[in-house]
Amino acid sequence: MSGQSITDRITAAQHSVTGSAVSKTVCKATTHEIMGPKKKHLDYLIHCTNEMNVNIPQLADTLFERTASTSWVVVFKSLTATHHLMVYGNERFIQYLASRNTLFNLSNFLDKSGLQGYDMSTFIRRYSRYLNEKAVSYRQVAFHFTKVKRGADGVMRTMNTEKLLKTLPIIQNQMDALLDFNVNANELTNGVINAAFMLLFKDAIRLFAAYNEGIINLLEKYFDMKKTQCKEGLDIYKKFLTRMTRISEFLKVAAQVGIDRGDIPDLSQAPSSLLDALEQHLASLEGKKVKDSTAASRASTLSNAVSSLANTGISFTKVDEREKQAALEEEQARLKALKEQRLKELQNGHFSYATTAASPVSTDGRTINTAPAIDLFSTPSSTNGTSKAASDLLDLQPAFQQQALLLSTGLPTANTWGGFSVSSITQPQTAGGLNVNFDSVFGNNSASANNVDSAVASMPSQGLIPNGQQLGKLVSDDLDLSLANLVGNLGIGNGVAKK
């Protein structure tokens, strides 16, 4: 099975239609391809966890839905993507996971499609258990063990006795769940389980570093504890020694699969004499007979043990810092590449915009059209001809302005209400300007109604007939002249009838 399946393509297309970019990315990150989730998809999901307008429960539920698949590839990649977001995403993501009563219910998962499905189903069940435990640990202590501040003033080193005795068992449970993955080098046979193993490897380094600092704090406080506290502390230290042996085996597997030796920390175990000193101190508190030991010898044993564990902590911290530095250099290289690409685009005259696929202001090397926009409500210029000014149906200028323009041509004018005022053509044009009788135009002069017929009857017919045009003939492409001819005909007809 290789490449995206038809189901993957159909599901991605459905999310494209619905416009859910997050669901589409989750689908692409958890396809049936036998390889780890692609980095570009994981980076996008990490970015989503940092955006306040992204619904974190919906994002998490989409990943949970993918684990309901019967394919081990889809389920394993869904767990890997979830783990990646728990480690590198915004803390809101793991806070939501920790608030859920149940997370992954894959304890009975089994892919029966083939031999590889049987093998990988075992690791899916173990992996899901670790992620569940990781979320439960965050719920109990309200912080990441893998992200806490380390060092002499770190969280685990400055914790008081009571809180320390409650916190160390929690970190032990998470460490047990991680080491229970229990994979051998010859079982890391595909990109899916390799991606999960790398995340577990990085978690193991950070988790054990915090665990180691908690034990150092425990040893420094041990000889000042009460009897019940010493009993709990001794039990925790014995379990720590067992887990140190298991983590060393886990690191050997990492070395066998090609992880750089410089990225694998060195383990320095505390001397066995420390365990004897702890047991004798507890026995003395219980009233049992013990070997006589001076305070100086006990302090020396404790100092040697703390020094050995501190060296182990430094080794783990160096590996973590090296990884952080590598990630920082990778990010700087990516930013430098993007900057060089942008400079090339600017030099070539091409501009790219991240917000839109095709920006309306993008020119792609062509000139920009600087033609002014047409204002439909502006006053037309008189140089374009009086016919164009009068024929513009969107012209909103007052009626008397149109009359002033049309009187110069000897044509009847339209009033504000769309009709024609015949009396306006009787107004003479003097050398000093236009003499317009507004009272006659708007019908305020009662005498104007009696003078209309006589004015029309005495009006020369040549004033209404343009050059080369017959009386009453319509003029093509000129609405005003055509209407003027018709009105003129009606006026002359009325005058003849009255005579």
Keywords:
499 residues, mainly alpha, two-stranded antiparallel sheet, 17 helices, 4 strands, 2% strand
Task: Please provide a written account of the structure.
This protein has 499 residues and is mainly alpha-helical. Helices cover 60% and strands 2% of the residues. It has 17 helices and 4 strands. It has helices spanning 6-18, 21-29, 39-50, 56-66, 72-88, 91-99, 115-141, 161-179, 191-222, 227-256, 272-285, 295-348, 386-391, 399-407, 438-441, 448-458, 479-498, and strands spanning 413-414, 420-421, 429-430, 433-434. Strands 1-2 form a two-stranded antiparallel sheet. It has a two-stranded antiparallel sheet with strand order 3-4. Helix 2 (21-29) packs antiparallel against helix 3 and helix 9 (191-222) runs antiparallel to helix 12. The chain is elongated, with a radius of gyration of 45 Å. Residues 352-401, 404-408, 413-434, 446-458 and 460-469 have low confidence and may be disordered.
